[in-house]
Amino acid sequence: MKKIIVSLSIGLILFSGQALKAQLSVGSEGLFIQNGTVFSTDGLTLVPSNDWGFNNLIVAMHPSVVIWPRFNSIQRMYRFNRPVTFQGELALSFQDIELNGNEAKDLVLAYSKTTSNNYKDYNLVQESVASPNEHYVGQLFAKPIIFADVNAVSMVSTSAIMYKDIEANNMITPNGDGKNDVWIVKNIQQYPNNELKIFDREGRVVYSKIGYDNTWDGTFNGNPLPEDTYYYILYIDSGKSKKTGFITIVKEQ
């Protein structure tokens, strides 16, 4: 395990320059990577243990999260345009702002064979090496793995946290006048790893969204809901905390 930490650290320090960032964006002529060669792009570093040849491969970094029921992913995703087979060392470096409420020391790698934001598609690498001081998490894969998406997840299931800076409006007046037409949750943009469910009096779900962004306008399947009081559950940071309450729809004349 010490070998992994040392080699990954060296790779992240020595191979983070602009000159190597194009090595994972390949044209039709293809690319051949000799085993043991360290290459990096936008914080993703790979050191293949076998000669690695491929063509027409593109990888992009996205500020995305994976929605987990108990755990919590960082706000960064590496997405390949097609699944790739890889054997060797893989690591990603990150910034504190991307931790999404996680502790750096608790991170492990997560990868999926398909492009997805659903935790059911991901494999957790529980033996990953995390370095909070160097701001990276990585692992040596002795056997080949197949992935299209790469992310990092905290393995710690945190008990409920008080998110006092989140304040939800309890009434909307969706009449098209541009005032109070949508349901606003103050500071929700700071917690993109959220899930919202809104119910009517009979307990039927009239609205649900992963990553609520202050856009619900009091409709169900595009149709305006009647004037009434509705109940909501807002799960924050993959269930680390939840907020509940009521929303009253008022049809002002």
Summarize the structure.
This is Gliding motility-associated-like protein. With 253 residues, the protein is mainly beta.
Low-confidence runs of at least 5 consecutive residues: 1-27
Helix content bin? under 10%
Q: N-to-C terminal Cα separation, in Å?
A: 69 Å
User: Helical element count?
Assistant: 1
Pfam family, one: CHU_C
Protein name: Gliding motility-associated-like protein
Signal peptide: 1-21
Keywords: Signal
Helices and strands in order:
Elements: H1 2-14, E1 31-33, E2 39-41, E3 44-48, E4 52-54, E5 59-62, E6 72-73, E7 77-93, E8 107-112, E9 122-125, E10 129-131, E11 136-154, E12 167-168, E13 171-172, E14 185-186, E15 194-199, E16 205-210, E17 219-220, E18 223-224, E19 228-236, E20 241-249
Parallel strand pairs: 13-20
Antiparallel strand pairs: 1-4, 2-3, 3-7, 5-7, 6-11, 7-11, 8-9, 8-11, 10-11, 12-14, 15-16, 15-19, 17-18, 19-20
Give an overview of the whole structure.
A hairpin with a 4-residue loop joins strand 10 and strand 11. The radius of gyration is 22 Å and the shape is elongated. Strands 2, 3, 5, 6, 7, 8, 9, 10 and 11 form a nine-stranded antiparallel beta sheet that branches. The N terminus is likely disordered. It folds into two domains: 153 residues, Chondroitinase Ac, Chain A, domain 3 (Sandwich), CATH 2.60.220; 83 residues, Immunoglobulin-like (Sandwich). It is mostly beta strands and 253 residues long. The longest helix is centred in the N-terminal third of the chain and has 13 residues.
